[in-house]
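SEQUENCE-TO-STRUCTURE ENTRY
===========================
What this section holds: a protein sequence and its matching fold, both as plain text.
Tokens: labelled as protein backbone structure tokens, with as many entries as the chain has residues.
Question of interest: how does this chain fold, as expressed in backbone structure tokens?
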Amino acid sequence: MKKFLICILCLISIKGFSQFRLGVQGSFSSLNMWQTDGYTGLDAGEFTWAINGFQAGVFGEYDLGYSGFEIQPALMYVESGSHLGQSKGFPGEGNFVIGYSDTHLRIYSLRLPVNLLYSYRVNSKWKVFGGLGPYIQKNLNGTEKGWYIGYDNSTNNYTPGGGPIKNNIKLSSDGSYATIGQSNVASIDAGMNILLGLQYKKLQFSVGWMRGFVTQYKTSYVNLGNQSWNFTLGYVLFGHERKPRL
């Protein structure tokens, strides 16, 4: 780690990297998931609600000439997931038991976003910026926790056999069935994010929205993928901005 920091400082001191900046940032996140029905045309009986999450890491900024455009890569440790209510059956299609689970899915990952930003300096202390870019994410681990209960559609009574769900997720493309201990999540995600923000001296605040393109969690009834709102606070540790051309 000490050698890594020394290398970063050396790069900043080199003329070619004189407009490179390095900072740290952390976010409060509102996590949820988009969904598509696994069985086309049939109601999956799936519900999702937002949960609180976080992300934290380091970011860099490099000015693209004097244009106001910047490249901003980052390396973040992030949380994603959702509050899930899953019906294991199709209501109204005869006499059978509907299994219902209510769980919180939390996935912990490393995410690498690379954004193209445009910034406008209002004065010597304030600037505003906005941009967008792709990201790729490597999922590491996670949990799915909650409870399960069965409901007999023929008798309108709850059935025995329900109980708590406490699963560690497995990185797999297989389908999930949380009530029997199978909580599978894809190993990779990729998507886009957009953001708007402002900076006062070296302190940054931004609001961003991201959406993944890869199905992360699926059952026989539904496919789910990542989306979230992120409220981010950052601080520039090293480096200087390119001064306007006179």
